[in-house]
Amino acid sequence: MTISMSGKRGLVMGVANERSIAWGIAQALHEAGAELAFSYQGEQLKRRVEPLMAGIGSDILVEADVTDDASLDAAFATLAERWGTIDFLVHAIAFSDKSELAGRFCDTSRANFQTSLNVSCYSFIDVSRRAAALMPDGGSLITLTYQGSQKVIPFYNVMGVAKAALESATRYLANDLGPQGIRVNAISPGPMKTLAGAAVTGARRTFKHAETNAPLRANATLAAVGGTAVWLCSDAGAFTSGEVVHVDGGYHIIGMPRPDMMPPAT
């Protein structure tokens, strides 16, 4: 089945470069016929996003600092002025101090805990409320999570707690916004070679371990995550809400490594 997003418009938040999951989603939505706007935070990210969006014919780029109410108000006011309404929003924003994505979780600082939860979780709640105001006929909100929310992943630390909160927020938002015809879901890819993923200590070993032990013996691709996002944003996903959709080659079902990958018995 070919899914068409023709006539649908939406905002993609969190593109950092061409290897970003957010960019993989944007490409898939564009190829399905959707019209896209993008957000950025800071001039460095703006310079990275501009050539990417130009390549797919997008001309709406708004600055959106998710820790600043005035910035978000201005971003969504621009969308309202240009389009009036939107059909979907993709939230791919998370942050934690790289120095704390190493060592022990119990050494997490108060300041970084607050920052990580604010940027990685509360921002989705904040932008969802604003996006919902531009969805009079319903729509779809998507965020990105990771299995470190449910199981201990080495060095993922406070981000695991932030993603757990994000998944819970997804369910509460789905319940709040469902009566308006707005669906809210999270996509949970396995380890991916992205700028954000590289910040976690031991990322390469985690990527290889998941690839080796996943039932499909592979980690997700940007195209696979993008295809899932197209489904969730389209009419084909009209009755899916409050879900965490895993796109990880099945790794999340595994309790132990393959027998041939385990240390020999002594």
What can you tell me about this protein's structure?
By secondary structure, the chain is an alpha/beta fold. It has one domain: NAD(P)-binding Rossmann-like Domain (Rossmann fold, 3-Layer(aba) Sandwich), CATH 3.40.50. The chain has seven helices and seven strands, in the order βαβαβαβαβαβααβ. It has a seven-stranded parallel β-sheet, sandwiched between helices. The longest helix is centred in the middle third of the chain and has 23 residues, at 110-132. The chain is globular, with a radius of gyration of 18 Å. The protein starts with 8 loop residues before the first strand and ends in a 19-residue tail after the last strand. The model has no long low-confidence stretch (mean pLDDT 94). Its EC number is 1.3.1.9. Belongs to the short-chain dehydrogenases/reductases (SDR) family. FabI subfamily. It comes from Roseisalinus antarcticus.
What's a concise summary of this model?
It contains seven helices and seven strands.
Shape: globular
> Beta-sheet strand percentage?
5-15%
Distance between the termini: 52 Å
Class by SSE composition: alpha/beta
Q: Report the sheet with the most strands, covering strand number, pairing sense and barrel closure.
A: 7 strands, parallel
Taken in chain order, the helices and strands follow as EHEHEHEHEHEHHE
- At the first level of CATH, the class is Alpha Beta
CATH superfamily: NAD(P)-binding Rossmann-like Domain
Instruction: Show unreliable segments.
Output: none
Give a count of the beta strands, DSSP E runs of length 2 or more.
Answer: 7
Largest sheet, spatial ordering of strands: 3-2-1-4-5-6-7
The value of Rg in angstroms is: 18 Å
| CATH architectural designation | 3-Layer(aba) Sandwich
Count of all domains: 1
Q: What percentage of residues falls in helices of 4 or more residues?
A: 25-40%
Q: What is the residue-averaged pLDDT? A: 94
Question: CATH fold name, please?
Answer: Rossmann fold
Tally of helical runs: 7
